[in-house]
Specification:
Protein name: Coiled-coil domain containing 152
Coiled coil: 82-189
Biased composition (Low complexity): 198-211
Keywords: Coiled coil
Number of helices: 2
Number of strands: 0
Helix content: over 70%
Region (Disordered): 197-216
Structural class: mainly alpha
Order of helices and strands: HH
Radius of gyration: 72 Å
């Protein structure tokens, strides 16, 4: 019994010390692991944030790449279109060259034809000119004959008009003399009447003492008669001037003929 209850304290203390060391080491490792876990969590969070940022950047880059691909495709299409247009332009130049050659040949043909037509027209024109000259000469001779006949008729008519004009002038002068005589006679009669009226008015004034009759009435009547006669005389003189002008124009025409 004494042997069973015997405990080796040194060994127990050593074991206890080792246990404490193990516990301390475990605590140390646990603290280190916690720190590492926190670091790992931070790294994970940073990694997720970085992943998200990279994902967004990737999307932007993908959009840019697609746009660049589209731009490159458009450039390729434009190059193809440019090549096609160059080919079309070359074809058009060749076609224009052929058209120009054909046009020059056609122009040369038309020039030759035009020269031939011009010669033919020149010959025809000369024939027409000669025929027209003959016709004009015949027409001129005929016109001269007609003019001579008309001139003779006009001379007769002008002579007749001159005689009529002289007769009309004489008649107008006679009429003017008659009107002047009539006007003088009217003035004399009016003067006599005016003298009688004035004498009667004076006698009436002396007998009745009334105011004399106004002389303005008689003066206005006399003035009216004189104006009427002057108008007639002016009209006659105007008619004479017109007849003389007509005679002068007719004389000028006759001289020209």
């Amino acid at each position: 019994m004494a042997k069973l209850n015997c405990v080796d304290l040194d060994k127990f203390m050593d074991d206890f010390a080792r246990l404490e060391q193990n516990i301390t080491a475990a605590h140390s490792r646990s603290s280190s692991l916690e720190i590492m876990l926190e670091d790992a969590n931070r790294l994970r969070t940073f990694g997720l944030t970085k992943e998200k940022s990279l994902s967004e950047e990737k999307e932007v880059l993908l959009v840019t790449v697609r746009r660049l691909q589209q731009t490159l495709q458009e450039q390729c299409n434009l190059r193809e279109e440019n090549e096609r247009l160059k080919s079309d332009v070359l074809d058009l130049k060749q076609q224009n060259e052929r058209t120009r050659e054909v046009g020059e040949a056609e122009l040369q043909r038309l020039v030759s034809k035009l020269q031939a037509e011009e010669k033919r027209h020149t010959v025809e024109l000369e024939a027409v000119r000669q025929r027209c000259s003959r016709e004009v000469e015949d027409a001129r001779r005929e016109a001269v004959m007609q003019l001579e006949e008309k001139e003779a008729e006009k001379k007769e008519l002008l002579q007749e008009k001159d005689l009529n004009l002289e007769e009309m002038k004489k008649r107008l002068k006679d009429q003017e003399k008659e009107r002047q005589s009539e006007l003088l006679k009217l003035q004399m009669e009016f003067g006599a009447k005016l003298a009688r009226v004035q004498s009667s008015a004076q006698r009436s004034q002396q007998q009745q003492g009334s105011s004399p009759l106004p002389h303005s009435v008689f003066k206005r009547k006399l003035q009216f008669f004189q104006e009427e006669k002057n108008k007639e005389v002016t009209a006659l003189r105007q008619r004479i001037r017109e007849l003389e002008e007509n005679q002068r124009v007719c004389s000028l025409k006759r001289r020209k003929l």
